[in-house]
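We were asked to recover a plausible sequence for a given structure. The inputs and outputs are reproduced exactly as logged, with field labels preserved.

PROBLEM: sequence recovery
POSITIONS: 503
GIVEN STRUCTURE:
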């Protein structure tokens, strides 16, 4: 292996920009990662981290700017083998095939052959040599699906190193690990660093940045903000770099208002447990907006889906206006008065091949006639009211919803959630992927629904969404770990979400 000049970055991005239509995903961003370090890349959702990783791994071509490896221009985008020799990414969701052995996963699509047949003895020998070289203590014959999560991650790292790459991107590597597993993974990362491997470390748990990384780069609003040694960047300055100056939208802030003490409890979560949350309890009263935030994988989406009947829960209880909600029952949730904006409008919220009207009234059942159809006149009334009240820009109720802008599609999803006049609203990332004008319109609808006395659960990581909340609950590792009353500072909330204690 050629010697490495420590003064030349092992990878460098210079002035890279990327746009998707009117959206700027990355604007003249830059980063330098030097050999043998663990370099953290942090930023809030939408800061540009995923786009930069895509560019650094050759999955996306920048519109402008340049990527260099050890001072040399990156391979052409089509040269996948060339990219694999320089860089690999171990993603949060494993690419290991669970039903194959470790050896088969290490050399997938490049099995050694003899006379046209796979040489299993050679495959196992090479796998054992590779695992020993990088100190991965698993059997080459083990079924990959039987390994612990951190062991699967180390197998993925070894596979990347077998191509010749010495620069590994770790995307949220601890999201599915417990405390002991994280400690073991960090020990192995440090050992691999000592052996000449360089890491770009992406995490929403900022305390981990201070434990494992030497340098940190912050992105915000698609731009590079700062690169600094971790030891020279106090936690409060790191949070400040991530949040910046908060620009308020033209929407009412919850600070200063109060919820009447005698307001009835509409949503009760009582010691609720599920696949990714445990023993969670809280109430939402009529006329109250409660935010639910936290890092990716913290359990907030799973809990919200349980309230909407989209996912089952395993223990505890959900009560809507004092009536129990069965586990995993969407129909029961609708009948009890739960309206829902799901996390993904495309995958869960809309039928793109149907009209605005069909999507808007999909949850309406009490207006159906004896044969299960809604009378054309009633259909027109319901759809017209939804279009007017939410300001949906459309050619008409019969336009296919696929032809609407993202903001107007989200308004249709919101309209459907409101169509049955629910008492409880569960809104997951309600303003994700929409323009500023649509964001203001959607947040205004939330405020109007609050004034009408609905109990609203806003599940989001967006500061603007959470500003509408009377209080924000923060979930990490499946539990509620903090509560912030309206009037919180951006820095304090983000620090809580990221797991950092400010002095």
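RECOVERED SEQUENCE:
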């Amino acid at each position: 292996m050629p010697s490495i000049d420590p003064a030349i970055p092992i990878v460098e991005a210079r002035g890279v920009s990327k746009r998707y239509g009117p959206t700027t995903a990355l604007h003249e961003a830059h980063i330098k990662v030097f050999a043998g370090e663990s370099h953290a890349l942090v930023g809030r959702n939408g800061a540009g981290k995923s786009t930069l990783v895509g560019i650094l791994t050759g999955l996306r071509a920048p519109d402008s700017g340049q990527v260099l490896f050890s001072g040399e221009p990156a391979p052409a985008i089509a040269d996948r083998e060339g990219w694999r020799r320089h860089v690999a990414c171990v993603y949060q969701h494993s690419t290991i095939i669970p039903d194959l052995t470790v050896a088969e996963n290490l050399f997938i699509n490049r099995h050694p052959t003899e006379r046209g047949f796979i040489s299993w003895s050679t495959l196992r020998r090479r796998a054992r040599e590779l695992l020993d070289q990088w100190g991965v203590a698993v059997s080459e014959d083990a079924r990959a699906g039987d390994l612990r999560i951190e062991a699967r991650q180390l197998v993925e790292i070894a596979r990347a190193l077998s191509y010749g790459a010495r620069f590994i991107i770790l995307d949220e590597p601890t999201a599915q690990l417990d405390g002991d597993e994280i400690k073991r993974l960090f020990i192995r990362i440090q050992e691999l660093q000592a052996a000449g491997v360089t890491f770009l470390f992406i995490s929403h748990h900022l305390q981990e940045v201070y434990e494992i990384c030497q340098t940190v780069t912050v992105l915000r609003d698609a731009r590079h903000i700062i690169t600094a040694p971790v030891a020279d960047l106090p936690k409060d300055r790191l949070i400040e770099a991530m949040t910046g100056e908060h620009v308020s939208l033209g929407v009412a802030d919850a600070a200063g208002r109060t919820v009447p003490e005698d307001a009835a409890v509409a949503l009760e979560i009582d010691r609720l447990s599920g696949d990714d949350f445990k023993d969670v309890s809280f109430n939402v009263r009529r006329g109250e907006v409660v935010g639910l935030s936290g890092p990716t994988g913290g359990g907030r989406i799973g809990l919200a889906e349980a309230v909407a009947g989209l996912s089952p829960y395993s223990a505890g209880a959900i009560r809507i206006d004092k009536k129990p909600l069965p586990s995993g029952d969407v129909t029961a949730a609708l009948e009890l008065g739960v309206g829902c904006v799901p996390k993904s409008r495309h995958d869960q919220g809309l039928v793109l091949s149907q009209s605005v009207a069909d999507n808007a009234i999909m949850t309406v059942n009490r207006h159906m006639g004896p044969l299960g159809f809604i009378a054309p006149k009633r259909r027109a009334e319901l759809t017209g009211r939804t279009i007017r009240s939410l300001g949906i820009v459309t050619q008409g109720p019969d336009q296919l919803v696929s032809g609407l802008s993202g903001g107007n599609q989200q308004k249709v999803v919101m309209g459907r959630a409101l169509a049955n006049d629910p008492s409880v609203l569960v809104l997951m990332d309600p303003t994700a992927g929409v323009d500023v004008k649509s964001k203001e319109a959607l947040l205004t609808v939330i405020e109007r629904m609050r004034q009408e006395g609905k109990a609203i659960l806003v599940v989001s990581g967006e500061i603007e969404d959470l500003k509408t909340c009377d209080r924000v609950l923060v979930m990490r590792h499946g539990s509620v770990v903090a509560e912030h009353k309206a009037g919180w500072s951006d820095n304090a909330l983000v620090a809580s979400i990221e797991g950092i204690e400010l002095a």
